[in-house]
Write a structure and sequence with these properties.
Layout: H1 16-35, H2 37-41, H3 46-65, E1 71-76, E2 82-86, H4 103-109, H5 133-138, E3 140-149, E4 152-159, E5 162-163, E6 168-172, E7 177-184, H6 196-209, E8 214-219, E9 224-228, H7 234-241, E10 253-259, E11 262-270, E12 278-283, E13 286-287, H8 293-312, H9 325-329, E14 332-339, E15 345-346, E16 352-353, H10 357-376, H11 378-406, H12 408-412, E17 432-437, H13 439-448, E18 454-459, H14 471-476, H15 478-487, E19 504-508, H16 513-529, H17 531-535, E20 539-542, E21 547-551, E22 554-558, H18 561-571, E23 576-579, H19 588-596, E24 603-605, H20 608-622, H21 627-635, H22 637-644
Parallel strand pairs: 1-8, 12-14, 17-18, 17-19, 19-20
Antiparallel strand pairs: 1-2, 2-7, 3-4, 3-7, 4-5, 4-6, 8-9, 10-11, 11-14, 12-13, 15-16, 20-24, 21-22, 21-23
Bound molecules: ligand 1YM.
């Protein structure tokens, strides 16, 4: 659009011919946009279409950042056009000194006319796409612009980027600002359908990021008006992100400071409903999804400051290792917003902030502000540090568990445990293993068994108490290691039910509270860690008798109170009834007769239902105190999956 080959102009303005010639030039100027719209707005699908709105709104936001505008109204019209109105200064309408036409027309027709006349201020436009009004104009079958300035309404319309007439004054007004309405071109966009949700989300985000501005989203037919206005800025943003979650510090940490020309705003609030990290970083209102220097500065300051505080407050003791970046990010919700004069966007999608000086700036601002916040809010500070410590503990536990599982030889090819009295038969389908509570019952079982096909593994029940039944401890428990080695299945990633050495695994516990406790723990363990064993029906419960009835040489056993009474009558006379308090009270012969002899015993096969019930009871036994840790293990199940789930 060089001026050389322009038709001559008269002193009084442009002739009709000159205007037509200009139209042709405008068309040529915007032609690349119409030919390759994707280059300018990313795509021509819904995303690209919605992006047209962003381009216009960004202009209004720039005007707001410069301090001239505090209201923006975006209207989704019923005829599928969209308009944006702001109350800024209005795009200049006077003659452009070199272009010899109205500045307004230049802004709407010259590609990359983004560079504004005046300098200074942080600009959104020129950021991610930042292609400006001219691109929207080029891709609209029709566009109307109105500028309210100095008491006058100035107006111009365009068709596919070509002005239909010069800017004209159409009346008086006492308002000030800019109004742009466009009808997206169906020749460019296959589907013209704006998404209220996409638009609303972006406008809400902009209202959070630019506190004090009011942005109204108006849908002519449908939802009506939504107003976004947040005095709290990104402080309100983190509250919004944490809505419905259990927050650790009720008032978010918040700081707003300008340092070396970079405006920095940070809000931080921890929650413990999930263990995910939710940190949003923005540079000049653009969501820098790929991160960059501001995020780097934030992370290093967060970790360093929390460690410093935790030591100062004596929560971290001298011998304790520092909290890691991962530890302090559990349950972290934060918004970081920086605004700078010349942002450099890098990365695959140009959403990584490159300006290296920003890392130090953000880090300095956060370190100061966070330390002050922690000092002033010791209760919140303690809860935040405790949460990071819990994360650290769980992470160490997971690491230990991983190590343990990786030493798979330990569980697979190691010699069978010394406590196991194995059977001589080698065909698993013929073999049974009795897992017996307590060493003394184990002794009787070893003596009484049929050693050809019955193996005995005594477990010391006490080892398996609830406290020690957490995933990490489970894997360090000698008893559990013995069990897995004896079963031969391996564990975690190396688990293979086909290597099971016994096709009947019989849990034999006392018929009392402790016994049922241990049974619950074992069932839970099998269900959570060796599930196919349960599903394939290899797991059984022994049914030891509750009573022994004796009269002279005659001896009977009863498995319930009812059976005891019936049998007592049947035998008649003076019957001696003894209640077994534990398996240990039975001698080897009795145990064989009543519980182990395949021709007489009753075995209950464990169903998936039984296992699920045990699992549920187990959860409740864990109690509320360990809730967060347990949730941690669950939410980190993905990273832990290869070891113990
Ligand atoms: C609905 C869209 O474009 N508002 C808007 C744009 C501009 C100004 C004010 C503005 C900027 C400046 C001075 C300046 C623009 N002006 C230009 C240019 N809303 C919308 N509001 N006076 C007014 O930056 O110095 C481009 S955009 F280049 F003409 F100054």
């Amino acid at each position: 659009m060089a001026g050389d080959n322009r038709p001559t102009r008269t002193g009084r303005g442009r002739t009709r011919d000159a205007y037509r010639a200009e139209q042709i030039q405008v068309l040529e100027g915007l032609d690349p946009v119409r030919r390759r719209p994707g280059m300018y707005i990313g795509s021509t699908d819904t995303r690209g279409l919605n992006h047209l709105i962003d381009e216009i709104v960004d202009n209004s936001i720039d005007e707001a950042l410069a301090g001239w505008c505090d209201q923006i109204v975006v209207t989704l019209h019923s005829d599928l056009s969209v308009s944006v109105l702001d109350n800024g200064r209005g795009i200049p309408v006077d003659m452009h000194p070199t272009e010899k036409r109205s500045a307004l027309e230049v802004v709407l027709t010259k590609l990359h006319a983004g560079g504004k006349f005046g300098g200074g201020g942080y600009k959104v436009s020129g950021g991610l796409h930042g292609v400006g009004l001219s691109v929207v104009n080029a891709l609209s079958e029709r566009l109307e612009v109105e500028v309210y300035k100095d008491g006058t309404v100035h107006r111009q319309s365009y068709a596919r980027g070509v002005p239909q007439a010069p800017v004209e004054k159409t009346g008086n007004t006492d308002r000030q600002g800019t109004y742009v309405r466009f009808w997206a071109d169906p020749q460019v966009f296959p589907v013209i359908e704006f998404s209220w949700e996409i638009v609303a989300n972006r406008l809400r985000e902009l209202a959070f990021l630019n506190k004090g501005i009011t942005i109204i989203l108006r849908e002519e037919a449908g939802r009506g008006d939504y107003a976004f206005h947040f005095e709290g800025g990104i402080r309100a943003f983190v509250r919004h992100l944490n809505a419905g979650r259990n927050v650790v510090n009720t008032t978010p940490m918040y700081v707003e400071r300008e340092i070396e020309g970079t405006a920095i705003e940070i809000a931080v609030q921890y929650q413990n409903t999930t263990f995910t990290e939710h940190v949003l970083a923005y540079a000049n209102n653009i969501n820098t999804e790929e991160g960059g220097s501001h995020l780097t500065g934030f992370r290093s300051a967060l970790t360093a400051t929390l460690n410093k505080y935790a030591r100062k407050a004596g929560i971290l003791k001298e011998q304790d290792p520092n909290l890691t970046g991962d530890d302090v990010r559990d349950g972290l919700t934060a918004v970081i917003s920086v605004k700078l004069q010349e942002p450099q966007f890098e990365g695959q999608t140009k959403t990584k902030l490159g300006n290296s000086e920003v890392a130090g700036q953000v880090s300095a601002v956060l370190s100061d502000a966070l330390m002050q916040y922690l000092d002033e809010n010791p209760g919140d500070a303690k809860r935040i540090v405790e949460q990071s410590l819990t994360a650290a503990r769980a992470r160490h536990a997971a690491a230990r568990a991983r190590e343990l599982v990786q030493r798979k030889s330990l569980l697979e090819s190691a010699t069978l445990p010394g406590k196991l009295a194995d059977c001589s038969e080698r065909d698993p389908s013929l073999c049974e293993i009795f897992i017996v509570e307590g060493d003394s019952a184990g002794g009787s079982a070893k003596q009484g068994r049929e050693r050809r096909f019955q193996a005995i593994l005594p477990l010391r029940g006490k080892i398996l108490n609830v406290e020690k039944a957490r995933a990490d401890k489970i894997l360090t428990s000698e008893e559990i290691k013995n069990l897995i080695t004896a079963l031969g299945t391996g564990f975690g990633d190396n688990f293979n039910v086909e290597r099971l050495r016994y096709h009947r695994i019989v849990l034999m516990v006392d018929a009392d509270v402790d016994g049922s406790h241990i049974r619950t723990l074992l069932l839970t363990f099998f269900w959570r860690h060796l599930q196919p064993v349960v599903r394939d029906g290899f797991l059984y419960l022994a049914q030891p008798p509750l009573y022994r009835l004796e009269k002279g040489k005659r001896r009977e056993y009863a498995y319930s109170d009812g059976e005891r009474d019936t049998k007592a009558k049947e035998i008649g006379g003076k019957v001696e009834v003894q209640r077994f308090k534990g398996l240990g009270e039975m001698d080897a012969e009795e145990l064989w007769d009543t519980t182990m002899d395949p021709s007489k015993r009753v075995l209950l096969r464990v169903s998936v239902d039984d296992a699920l019930k045990a699992d549920d009871i187990f959860d409740r036994l864990m109690g509320t105190d360990v809730e967060p840790r347990k949730r941690f293990i669950q939410t980190h199940a993905k990273s832990v999956r290869n070891l113990d789930i």
